[in-house]
Amino acid sequence: MSDTKASKHNFKRKTAFILLAILGTILIIGWLIYTPTGLSGKADAIGYSFCHRIDSRSFHVGDYQFPLCARCSGMYLGALLAIVFQAILGKKNGGFPQKGILAGLVVFLLAFAVDGGNSLLQFAFKDGLLYQTTNTTRLITGTGVGLGIGLVLYPLFHQSVWMFYDRKPVIDNWKKFGLLILLAGILDLIILSDVNWLLYPLAILSAVSVFLILITLYSVLAILLTKQDNKFKNYPELGLPVLIGFVIALGQIALLNYLRFTITGTWGGFPPLP
Questions:
Q1: What are phi and psi of 162, to 5 degrees?
Q2: Of 38, 92, 137, 172, which sits most exposed with the smallest number of CB within 10 A?
Q3: Is the C-alpha dihedral spanning 94, 159, 185, 198 positive or negative?
Q4: 23: CB partners within 8 A, 6+ apart
Q5: Measuring CA to CA, how many Å separate 234 from each of 164, 180, 261?
Q6: What pLDDT digit, counting tens, does each position of 70-122 carry?
Q7: Residue 39 in contact with residue 32, Cβ under 8 Å?
Q8: Of the candidates 71, 69, 61, which has an alpha carbon nearest to the alpha carbon of residue 40?
């Protein structure tokens, strides 16, 4: 690239960054003003944009309901756990887990579908058709799918972004996969422990996880659509695509907040069906 073209390219990137930063600032100020107050209120607003938040299908910290239902809490916390676990063990690994482990993730997905379907049927049949679905089964099956999301999203990010990355998967053996499942089990036990000082941070973290995963997905999408895949060498270079991901993620949350509140007139969860 010639010096002139490089200069024009840098000018366009800086201009786009400034405009997006202004838009992002406007969005976040408006969102902070019009959503419920306090840290828990903002977390609730994030959960409100994606989850039914039915009270009876959610965990509670004293009188405070989790921002997400039991299944969604497990799913997003499980995804965050898998991403952090891989980040600790491998820096820029872009390989997917081996076929056997992927098959295990498919089993988790099937369990999620069965439990979710049975839970839905409980609206019509008190005990469901197969068994009594509880918040415990919702949490466990949600966590299993969350692990799958994290184990796929992490290598997908590195495959799409970096000019140079390690093609070896982070989870390259059953020992590491077993350790991840053990950590997920401990996470679920903590949620089921009903210890408030442990639950409140996890409640807030579940909502934060939604936002972080959305930013990651939209950042990767922005990179692919602008044909910038595999052109980045380090994290500072990702400033513009991450800002794009942030603005789109926040815009989506704000739009869904607005639409749902306009329709329902309340920040509360959906009432359970009779």
A1: -85, 145
A2: 38
A3: positive
A4: 247
A5: 10, 27, 41
A6: 999 999 999 999 999 999 998 889 999 999 999 999 999 999 999 999 888 88
A7: no
A8: 61
Token readout for 157 is: 């990010």
| Digit-coded pLDDT (tens) for 126-172 | 766 778 889 999 999 999 999 999 999 999 999 999 999 999 999 99
Q: Calculate what percentage of the chain has a pLDDT beyond 90.
A: 83
Domain ranges of the chain: 40-264
- Strand segments, DSSP code E, in the chain are 60-61, 64-65, 93-95, 166-169
Residue among 239, 82, 63, 73 at smallest CA distance from 156:
82
And the tokens for 90? 């491998």
78: helix, strand or coil: helix
- Both tokens of residue 50? 């994606």
Specify burial of residue 22 (Cβ count, 10 A radius: 0-12, 13-18, 19+): exposed
- What does 98-149 look like in DSSP terms, one character per residue? PHHHHHHHHHHHHHHHHHHHHHHHTTTSTT-SSS---HHHHHHHHHHHHHHH
The answer to whether 27 and 251 have CB atoms below 8 angstroms apart is: yes
Is 196 in a helix, a strand, or coil? helix
Q: Is 169 helix (H, G, I), strand (E, B) or coil?
A: strand
